[in-house]
Amino acid sequence: MALTNEQAKLLFGLEKETELQSYKLPNPNEILTISLSAKDERFKDELFSLDISRKSLSLKKKTFQKRAQENIVLRRLDFFGGHHNPTLSFVPNNLENSIIELMQKYTDVRFSNQTHIHFYIDGYGEKWAFPITEFDFIESDDIFEQTKEFCRYCNIAGLPTFNMKDLLCMI
Fold first, then answer.
1. pLDDT at 125 over 60
2. Are 77 and 150 in contact (CB under 8 A)?
3. How many whole angstroms separate alpha carbon 19 and alpha carbon 25?
4. pLDDT tens, 63-72?
5. Three-class DSSP category at 130
6. Long-range pairs of 62-66 with CB within 8 A, sequence gap ≥ 24
7. Residues of the chain with pLDDT > 70: what percent?
């Protein structure tokens, strides 16, 4: 089921919490999926997930994503990834002007080995991405800081602690 831009914005903006207070970050070639729940009782039945993926041979490449309704990616942060934005063929309804401006600026742009963030946009899914320099992200090479920063960005309350599984996690 697709979401409208208003629904996506509302679901993304909800304050969420994790089931556990501590998680072990994945090693290279592993994925960690964390179940989230909305703190607002009206949205308690909504399913949210936070995925931390290191499914790459490159040690720098990682993907963090926040999903709603099990499979709708609201945001996806790709570290040192590649992506090609579509051509802006239509301007979706009820989308923030700042996002429309970014779509115009980055229409048909290719990212190569560059950290970028994907947005869910009605009619496009998560096909649009923008450099993280366009947003208020703290850039870091440390997976712990990257994870905490993405959790803060995704409105995850009471940030859990993240530990390494073993020494490979630090790479």
1. yes
2. yes
3. 15
4. 999 999 989 9
5. strand
6. 62/143, 62/146, 64/146, 64/147, 64/150, 65/118, 66/12, 66/36, 66/150, 66/154
7. 93
